[in-house]
Amino acid sequence: MKFIVITLIFLTANTIHSQTAYEKGMAKAFELWENKSPDEAINLFERIAKAEKENWIPYYYAAQIHITTSFNIKEATEIESRLKKAQNYINEAKTFSTDNAEILIMEAMLNTAYVAYNPSVYGPTLSAKIEALYQKAKNLEPNNPRAILYHAEWNMGAAKFWGKDPMSFCPEIEKAILYFEKEPKNKIAFYPSWGVHQAERVQKNCN
Amino acid sequence: MKSPLLNILFFISFSTIAQTTITGKVTDKQNTAIIGANVYLEGTYDGGSTDEQGNFSFSTSAKGPQTLTVSFLSFETYTLRAAVSEMENVNITIREDVNSLGSVILNAGTLSAGDNSKASVLTPLDIVTTAGAAGDYIAALQTLPGTSNVSEDGRLFVRGGDANETNIFIDGLRVFQPFLATTNNIPTRGRFSSFLFKGTNFSTGGYSAEYGDALSSVLLLNTIDEPDQEKSELQFLNVGIGGGNTQKWNNNSLSVNAFYINLKPYQGIIEQRVDWIKPYESLSGEAVYRHSFANDGLLKIYGGLNYTNFELIQEDINVADGINFGLKNRNLYLNTSYKGNLGNDWDIATGASFANDYSDIKITNTEVTDDENSFHAKVKVRKRFSNRFKISIGTEQFLNTFSEKAEDPDFDIPFNTTFNNNSTAVFAEANVFFSKKLAMQIGTRGVYNTLLKDTKISPRASLAYKTTSKSQISLAYGDFYQAPQQNVLKFNSLLEPEKSSHYILNYLYQNDGRTFRAEGYYKTYESLIKFDTEIPQFDSTFNNDGKGYATGVDIFWRDNTSIKNLEYWASYSYLDTKRNYRNYPEKATPNFAATHNLSLVTKYWVQDWKSMIGATYNFASGRPYNNPNERTFQNQTTKSFNAINLSWAYLISQQKILYFSVSNILDFDNVFNYQYSNTPDPSGNFSRRAIRPNADQFFILGFFWTISDDKSDNQLDNL
Known about the structure:
Helix content of chain A: over 70%
Shape of chain A: globular
Strand content of chain B: over 45%
Number of strands of chain A: 0
Number of helices of chain B: 5
Shape of chain B: globular
Structural class of chain B: mainly beta
Structural class of chain A: mainly alpha
Largest sheet of chain B: 22 strands, antiparallel, barrel
Largest sheet of chain A: none
Distance between the termini of chain A: 69 Å
Order of helices and strands of chain A: HHHHHHHHH
Oligomer: heterodimer
Number of helices of chain A: 9
Largest interface: A-B, 40 and 46 residues
Helix content of chain B: under 10%
Distance between the termini of chain B: 85 Å
Strand content of chain A: under 5%
């Protein structure tokens, strides 16, 4: 009897320990990101990803930080090396999770970053690809608010370029906000659920 | 009350996570501290980033031997296997990743157009939006340095070489008849639709040992791996109509397209210098199937079928009524390639191509039928020992059967000829990066030709050194052999391959959308074919005694950033070449080789008009020609060549484009060459006829419509 109790305690102690390590690590990485240490956050996500072996989520966030950081950089080589690295993280994420709408959305954002960085070179070559990625994400998860939001924002940019009314995509933004509110909490820890603030920011342009 | 046993248990449990501190410093080879590198123990969450001095420090509960990993953007990942207890004050030097941005590139001789190539001078879009190119990728390449403007021909003349000295490959496999069938002074076009390709490497010399049987140049075209989306495309032009469709399912995709050209309505409106009996008509269809395998392997199968038909009267100074020339040509081309991973850092690229070309030619009363079958198979494997050292080895087989039958009322019996020109080649190449700044490629190629019963070994080498973060110099050397052309082999096969040697020095400067490239070269020709008649014929005497040289400087400048919405590039080529070949009595500069060639290509996007307006200016100094009234052979030059071409693509909506282009808008009167009569007139003078374009200008008006689910893709990249 005593043996069983001891063994149980031992096992529980260890499982709690390993679970918290992942959760603690992830929480620490988000904290670094919030505290304006994006590169340290990337490093930590990368370490977690390497240790976790088959978890796409840390790779996903490492890619996201590179992509969002690239928007605020002017120097061409740094932008390109960050985006290249982000693509590598996305490729890793894809090997652990196929047909994942969240990863496809992130890949579409990555390609959008290329277009934003050099529209004349990447605009004509990547537009169709970005569109196809959003379409595929929406096919997998028609109610995914990030897919709706970022696809609409991309279309608004295109409409502006073509001299059409970007406001015609405002109902899509409303729809995204609605789906953000309805978005069920995923059972997987740290599953992407961000974006509602971005939606509200875009919505301001609609008024 | 807690049992003491549990306390002990807790203690043990915690003691297993007792901490060791790991410390050290990360620097590069120059001993500069690396800031922000990721240092961690593999398989644990334990790690940290290096600080401003390159120092790191973190604690871990891991015990015993562990792997310490250091990773950092654009550096090679470093690993150290040691006991945790020994990981104190470790000094780590990491090496730059030679595959990263900013590494030196082996680019002597090469001009690449692609998304991914670091040395790209053009994007795939540029190839087809160049004014005057009319959607022909070959015509766009003629705005690059190293090419000569020979616009009555349409093929690529590189650095003093004639058009036969350039070979074209699709996905590494030979294309046997890359150009539409045509005749003298009617310019040809590339046979393949430009939208199949995602990248192009155009080598004007010093190319890899993988490619042979070309004295001057190779053009490497790579087809798209995976189309972005399903779509249909329609093209309506004043000279023809076309359509295409792309389907995707699972790991497969299929693209088909067809195009029909008929110049009859056009030539009814625009006056031509040539008397067309049957205006140019051509029907072509292409299909590409692609399949990607779970192991990253990629299979591509391409098939193209083309039919061309025309008849005209060619002006000739010696024949009062002109020469009646008619041609019916049918060409089938198949190309299957596979590239994949064999594991353990071995890659394979293999494939085969086949072409059948059938021509039915009528020259006045002579009927000629040509039938040619060609086959190429290649296997190449590459072992990657590290990012810094790779070796490729490969073998290839060429089979070629040509047969010709000529019938004429004056002949007693039909003239029949047939030959098999087969060859086997092996090649090996090593690619070495000594550092991010210095790289070398060295290779050799051996070929045995069964028709000529001849073996040739050719060495190839190139070296590149990065002088500053934005500039580099590179060198290349190589020997190149090419079997004599079909028009010679059909009369004589007791000849040797022709030979050239290239010496190239290249300087490249790239800075934020600006590229400057200067390349100097010296090229020698040996064993060129000579014969003692006007053209090769059954009673000619042939030998390999021809010789020649070509030397020059090619300059390229491109700027995408200085003026908003304007992209432009300028190419200038200086060429000094002389050769004694064919029936030349002495060394002379051939008619196709102008000393100075200049192209200025501009593209301006007008946002308010939703229009891409392009203008191209081409200049070539006068071309040499032979005047039999003069004592010296080939000592006259024509006047210089000038043309300004304009194009305007108006985007009606995202998927509908209206396109208009006109070549030689200022209507310059260009002369390419002169033909002299065979016999002098009573006063002892040879009279002449100017060889001029068959029309001074060419107009294209087209409407391009893309239909896809997302409504965003268009055919701007096909124009």
